Amino acid sequence: MSLLRVENLSVSRQKRIVVDRVSFTIGEGEFVGLIGPNGAGKSTLLRALLAQLPYQGSVTLNGQESAQLKSVKRAQFLSYIAQDREISWNMRVEAVVQLGRLARLPQFSGLSKEDQHQITSAIEALEITHLRDKSARELSGGEQARVLIARAIAQDTPLMLADEPVAGLDPAHQLGLMQIFRELSASGRSIICTLHDLGLAARWCTRLLLLKDGCLVADGTPADILKEDVIRDLYGVEVFRTQTPDGLIIQPTHIVR
């Protein structure tokens, strides 16, 4: 059974169709990049999968319709990294990461050894151990982003949705996060991640979904999807493209006039 099955998904906002009859499935161990130009419907699609927006069609998580699941059940299966990652709560960093375990805690119960293991592992993976006792509200934007990513990883769900997770991170932490996602997918968890950086999408994702004007126009490997003519038509840029022992390299070079 697929972790996620999307069939003829459509979302309208302010009487305008933003996602138009999109269908795809996600299996175990996939690191899927959701790409497309601004306004293609990427963030709206993720929010529909979370049942945060009304939709037409079907979204099933492990065989159950997403909109019909109780929020706790959905949170046990699906975690989410939102695009807006400003933390306004006056909480310690470790306490914010602990929130990722709430959906798994029995009522009136404290953190188990497994809970604490997941929390510590996520904190260490995002390299925020030195921040764990600081107030999250006092951190920089990039540090806050890493805290919220750690919270989602600590949630330990079969499927994770991430909306532009590398935004605000420096190059080293961007690469580190892509490595973490690749390792999670290798362990059997699946990630759907919106990306504007085609170089990261090419180098790290195992599969790409390409949206244009709310429609899914391509679904395949980075090597199959990220061709020069496709990028030129979709984004209006020329790119340098080469295959290396470390993977496919894509670098935009100039705007097509």
UniProtKB/TrEMBL annotation:
<dbReference type="InterPro" id="IPR003593">
    <property type="entry name" value="AAA+_ATPase"/>
</dbReference>
<comment type="similarity">
    <text>Belongs to the ABC transporter superfamily.</text>
</comment>
<keyword id="KW-0813">Transport</keyword>
<protein>
    <submittedName>
        <fullName>Iron complex transport system ATP-binding protein</fullName>
    </submittedName>
</protein>
<dbReference type="InterPro" id="IPR017871">
    <property type="entry name" value="ABC_transporter-like_CS"/>
</dbReference>
<dbReference type="InterPro" id="IPR027417">
    <property type="entry name" value="P-loop_NTPase"/>
</dbReference>
<dbReference type="InterPro" id="IPR003439">
    <property type="entry name" value="ABC_transporter-like_ATP-bd"/>
</dbReference>
<dbReference type="GO" id="GO:0005524">
    <property type="term" value="F:ATP binding"/>
</dbReference>
<dbReference type="GO" id="GO:0016887">
    <property type="term" value="F:ATP hydrolysis activity"/>
</dbReference>
<keyword id="KW-0547">Nucleotide-binding</keyword>
<keyword id="KW-0067">ATP-binding</keyword>
<keyword id="KW-1278">Translocase</keyword>
<comment type="function">
    <text>Part of the ABC transporter complex HmuTUV involved in hemin import. Responsible for energy coupling to the transport system.</text>
</comment>
<dbReference type="GO" id="GO:0005886">
    <property type="term" value="C:plasma membrane"/>
</dbReference>
<dbReference type="Pfam" id="PF00005">
    <property type="entry name" value="ABC_tran"/>
</dbReference>
<feature type="domain" description="ABC transporter">
    <location>
        <begin position="4"/>
        <end position="238"/>
    </location>
</feature>
